[in-house]
């Protein structure tokens, strides 16, 4: 199998059967009254991994993080960190630290005092604390802000203080709850890379909770996509995008065209018949067998849009250009098929001007190659 | 060990105030209730306990047989008490309405005041609340007396020829209640009026509603939670008020708080005053529960 | 802005505040009256203040009141803060409904009932009435006011601050004293001041629960007022009003000053950056 996407660095302990998991959730369930926030969930995270929990709000990702931090107790199931069962260990005795979504900076303490807080709790000698605080301030480039109070800082500076404070104790694992949620878009993008570099330099394990797929894909080694308290897929960003395990993941991450149909022939040159009767040639039908109802997920950029039917391509559909969204770097065409379905196709604007571009209400063909889509059975 | 200590700590946080209130708030109520059911002769001071722990169970049953509802029957039969209850509720209700009439324009004016003035105005409403209740009631005696400042002023203006008799009448009680409880009315009203989006009024006017109609159709209904809170905060304590009717009211101004006080301190009839207290409480339970519910609902809406 | 404020609003505010303040102002003015007759102005004099200071009974009562108010406010603040923490933090424990009921009931309970019931308790347990019983009674009702004031602050308190402290290794007790308490301190101080003035004011409950030798100032004032209005009482009232007003305004100014300093500091920082 060809590699999916480009890997950021060669780091894949999950692919190594001899590697020892660092954090293990074993059949963890958490209920709040009638509401099940986390449902019989099992998950492993490896040392030095940058791991993202991605999902919509209320999917249980924050609850999972808070259980690891010790702020919630699992209703059932167990959580291990570095071989140690965390059951019954209160937050103040766990070797993990958390960066809170609201940053939770102590408003009555200076930046320095905030960073030193955790070290003082451990009874570290004063000189050592001063040294460590200085080191942390340097790390987050806030040396000249040591004496300020949190309300005298900008949003980005606060975020860095929160980071420094949670890193000061050199935790085995750093938990980050929507760490960039309060920053504006530009600052968020810059900070994403800073965080990745920092994690790599320090060699720590990071677990981040986010609802922003771009953020998860930019930073994480692996992403766990969660819905209704369950993990639907754990995989690298490229795998999640190119080989989603189910319709929810395919639709949650990025944009997708979903063709519902029936398997006519299974195997490596499979045939599907979609609802309108069109036949598709697909390179791999996965574990579906003839007669099964399946969904073919094709990303918009994998579709080609042309005026004439391309002769060499098997999979082509005719329709009318219904809407055009010009986004600068690319253009998205919404093509309305004869049966009313809308198909999205995008083209990269690699040139500044295009002669004789497609326009509204023109007839057009969208086509895709047999390996452009993924067959999903659920 | 440390965990054990912290769980003991969290238990203490609950237990200490809990036990304090249990012993000094709830238990006294049961004692009042118990005494209200005992025979006047037994409970005349020096007070003899109706039953104590030392009596044991058999003693308790023996004493239980002696309990009676005589005091309550007495309250019902004697027109004095019934009238006192009725007139307390009426006086409290009328003064609540008057307080609302006086308080609403003040709260409205504050809510519409320039924003930088509002904290000062708020402070000015709260400040009298910090000064002694007794003193504020006392201040009115000198004003309302027949030869007092109000009459002197009105005579001077020539509005009246003879001094008005206000002190030691129910009118003075109304004035006293309105004056003393005004901050309780203004504060919740101000809180709801201040939060209100002024563009609602502008929208109503834009849609063709004249200002006064806009007030009745938009502002007043939206301020209703504040009206309810303010009225309850005035009405409930006013029913049981003692100082105001005692200092400003006349001998014919019947209010139950004063009746209870006299029953206790002058007649020294403890069982009857206990029964008076229990009945007063029963009268107030309904508005108190209603008020708590309204507050809880408001909190939910905001939270 | 003034246009939308309107004449009607200004008039209602002026009349409203005149109604609120005129009686107090008149009371203060007539405390400086030379004449024994309260309502006839006979020239400025401070003789009633001198008389007041020489009145042994009055001064004793003032001393009792000061001690009761200080002690009861302090204990009530501790108990009330604990109750507020218990109510906001522990959402499930046995008897929570009863507990919250007991915290809120005294706020609306007629004073005559509270006073009577406490007196009957003290009699039932054979507890001599005096300084201690008045103090206990004041603690009981003012702790509920403190609890409400502190609770309303705790509700808006960002719980993640406390969780962050736990996360960084502070035990729950340390987290409370190092993080929660400093942040909610203004409300605790406000609670103390409220409890202090409630105790300073109270006539009814003190009358029921006090005993010989523990006459509080409001009780003394009340017994004299029943005999008629005197300039001496006006003088006492003026002093009390002055103390409370100075206290409240000072507290407000301290708050305001802190705010202004903070803002100025922020501005300087922004300018230097």
From TrEMBL, chain A:
<dbReference type="InterPro" id="IPR017879">
    <property type="entry name" value="PotA_ATP-bd"/>
</dbReference>
<dbReference type="InterPro" id="IPR017871">
    <property type="entry name" value="ABC_transporter-like_CS"/>
</dbReference>
<dbReference type="InterPro" id="IPR003593">
    <property type="entry name" value="AAA+_ATPase"/>
</dbReference>
<feature type="domain" description="ABC transporter">
    <location>
        <begin position="23"/>
        <end position="253"/>
    </location>
</feature>
<keyword id="KW-0067">ATP-binding</keyword>
<keyword id="KW-1278">Translocase</keyword>
<keyword id="KW-0997">Cell inner membrane</keyword>
<dbReference type="InterPro" id="IPR005893">
    <property type="entry name" value="PotA-like"/>
</dbReference>
<comment type="function">
    <text>Part of the ABC transporter complex PotABCD involved in spermidine/putrescine import. Responsible for energy coupling to the transport system.</text>
</comment>
<dbReference type="GO" id="GO:0005524">
    <property type="term" value="F:ATP binding"/>
</dbReference>
<keyword id="KW-0472">Membrane</keyword>
<keyword id="KW-0547">Nucleotide-binding</keyword>
<dbReference type="InterPro" id="IPR027417">
    <property type="entry name" value="P-loop_NTPase"/>
</dbReference>
<comment type="subunit">
    <text>The complex is composed of two ATP-binding proteins (PotA), two transmembrane proteins (PotB and PotC) and a solute-binding protein (PotD).</text>
</comment>
<dbReference type="InterPro" id="IPR013611">
    <property type="entry name" value="Transp-assoc_OB_typ2"/>
</dbReference>
From TrEMBL, chain B:
<feature type="transmembrane region" description="Helical">
    <location>
        <begin position="172"/>
        <end position="193"/>
    </location>
</feature>
<dbReference type="Pfam" id="PF00528">
    <property type="entry name" value="BPD_transp_1"/>
</dbReference>
<feature type="transmembrane region" description="Helical">
    <location>
        <begin position="84"/>
        <end position="108"/>
    </location>
</feature>
<keyword id="KW-0813">Transport</keyword>
<protein>
    <submittedName>
        <fullName>ABC transporter permease subunit</fullName>
    </submittedName>
</protein>
<feature type="transmembrane region" description="Helical">
    <location>
        <begin position="120"/>
        <end position="141"/>
    </location>
</feature>
<feature type="transmembrane region" description="Helical">
    <location>
        <begin position="12"/>
        <end position="37"/>
    </location>
</feature>
<feature type="domain" description="ABC transmembrane type-1">
    <location>
        <begin position="85"/>
        <end position="291"/>
    </location>
</feature>
<keyword id="KW-0812">Transmembrane</keyword>
<dbReference type="InterPro" id="IPR000515">
    <property type="entry name" value="MetI-like"/>
</dbReference>
<feature type="transmembrane region" description="Helical">
    <location>
        <begin position="270"/>
        <end position="291"/>
    </location>
</feature>
<dbReference type="InterPro" id="IPR035906">
    <property type="entry name" value="MetI-like_sf"/>
</dbReference>
<keyword id="KW-0472">Membrane</keyword>
<feature type="transmembrane region" description="Helical">
    <location>
        <begin position="214"/>
        <end position="239"/>
    </location>
</feature>
<keyword id="KW-1003">Cell membrane</keyword>
From TrEMBL, chain C:
<keyword id="KW-0813">Transport</keyword>
<feature type="transmembrane region" description="Helical">
    <location>
        <begin position="233"/>
        <end position="254"/>
    </location>
</feature>
<feature type="transmembrane region" description="Helical">
    <location>
        <begin position="175"/>
        <end position="195"/>
    </location>
</feature>
<feature type="transmembrane region" description="Helical">
    <location>
        <begin position="97"/>
        <end position="125"/>
    </location>
</feature>
<keyword id="KW-0812">Transmembrane</keyword>
<dbReference type="InterPro" id="IPR035906">
    <property type="entry name" value="MetI-like_sf"/>
</dbReference>
<keyword id="KW-0472">Membrane</keyword>
<comment type="similarity">
    <text>Belongs to the binding-protein-dependent transport system permease family. CysTW subfamily.</text>
</comment>
<protein>
    <submittedName>
        <fullName>ABC transporter permease</fullName>
    </submittedName>
</protein>
<dbReference type="InterPro" id="IPR051789">
    <property type="entry name" value="Bact_Polyamine_Transport"/>
</dbReference>
<feature type="transmembrane region" description="Helical">
    <location>
        <begin position="131"/>
        <end position="154"/>
    </location>
</feature>
<feature type="transmembrane region" description="Helical">
    <location>
        <begin position="61"/>
        <end position="85"/>
    </location>
</feature>
<dbReference type="InterPro" id="IPR000515">
    <property type="entry name" value="MetI-like"/>
</dbReference>
<feature type="domain" description="ABC transmembrane type-1">
    <location>
        <begin position="62"/>
        <end position="254"/>
    </location>
</feature>
<keyword id="KW-1003">Cell membrane</keyword>
